[in-house]
Amino acid sequence: MALYNTLDAKELRRKLELEQFKRKTLSFYRYIRIDNPQEFRDNLYREWSDLNCFGRIYVAKEGINAQMSVPESNVDTFLNQLRSHELLKNLQVRFAIEDDGKSFFKLSLKVRPKLVADGLEDDSYDVSNVGNHLSPIEFHNLIGNSDTLVVDMRNHYESEVGKFENAICPKSETFREELLIATELLKDNKDKKILLYCTGGIRCEKASAYFKHQGFADVNQLYGGILEYAQVIKATGLKSKFTGKNFVFDGRLGERVTDEIISHCHQCGKLCDTHTNCANDDCHLLFIQCDECKTKYDACCSADCKNINSLSEEEHAKYRLNTILNTTTRTFQSHRQVTSFIK
Q: Residues near 173 by Cβ (< 8 Å), separated by ≥ 6?
């Protein structure tokens, strides 16, 4: 069997819409030593393909990180197979807060240098020296204390739609930026109790180790992340200290934790927390868009993208060619100017 997908995205999405059974969205991660990531990846692909699983999974020498969609009838078999691997015994799996079964439409397993790109050398700090793991209730009870700082270790577009009370939310695009910005913001508070959180916990594992390496004395992390917190708080009947939506990196783009909307449409300013990928294939900007603006702009981020997206295939091909030629010309001219200056 082929160890990768061979169908195009449109065909895969069409097949997903035609399915007559339910799917469950789940996630898990583990930092472990994998000597042969490619072989490990290939074995998992065979098993999960046979169970009709979809998802986005990364395997590296340092472990595995997975977000998946599994047919409801195959969940038990999937979990048993998963934990039968010596490296994945007793693995904790978390299920989605809000699930329409449309989170993924294909199975994608990729081998990567790192599970979470931190931009740092492997031996620059001890990634195993992590902070204290706090249960959702422990984390919940510490929020609001005068000697405690809550830090969101996600990207800005995630915290824009949902966050914990009084959380510090660095304006970062990537995790590697987040580490540097967060430690700089907190450099004068190394004696405070630091509470870190992210979606499922994997980013906080590295972040807590980095904070400790930077000299922070009392570093703690929400074990299981927002996913675990939302489910435990709901089950116990406590009032959630996380407000809004939990952003997720799949087709849903978010799952609601509380009814409050804390963000606004990027086009008209109306209260809204629905993320959209610009429909223009040459753009695909991730932004927040209300239903009215989605209709007005045909799910595009601007009038320009709407106009480009309305072109015929022939016109679109010409537009792309002109864009490439113009970009090449500007690059060539810039190169000539720099060369002339150097001479």
A: 155, 156
Give residue 277's pLDDT band: very low, low, confident or very high (50, 70, 90): very high
> Please, which pLDDT band fits residue 7 given cuts at 50, 70 and 90?
confident
Are 305 and 280 within 8 A, CB to CB?
A: yes
Question: In 3D, which of 226, 213, 229, 147 has the Cα closest to residue 180?
Answer: 213
* CA distances, 269 to each of 132, 206, 325 (Å): 40, 36, 36
- Cα–chain center distance at 97: 15
* Catalytic residue chosen out of the listed positions 53, 198, 204, 300: 198
In 3D space, the residue among 281, 288, 285 whose CA is nearest the CA of residue 311 turns out to be 281
Instruction: Classify domain 20-111 at the CATH topology level.
Output: Alpha-Beta Plaits (3.30.70)
**Architecture of domain 132-236 in this structure:** 3-Layer(aba) Sandwich (3.40)
Report the predicted TM-score, pTM, of the whole model to 2 decimal places.
Answer: 0.87
- Strands of the chain (E only): list them: 23-31, 54-60, 63-71, 94-95, 107-111, 132-134, 148-152, 162-164, 193-197, 218-222, 242-246, 255-256, 275-277, 286-288
Give the other-Cβ count within 10 Å of 50's Cβ.
12
For CATH 3.30.70.100, the residue range(s) in the chain are 20-111
Confidence of residue 163 (pLDDT cuts 50, 70, 90): very high
Q: For the chain, give every residue range classified as CATH 3.40.250.10.
A: 132-236
Is 198 catalytic? The answer is yes
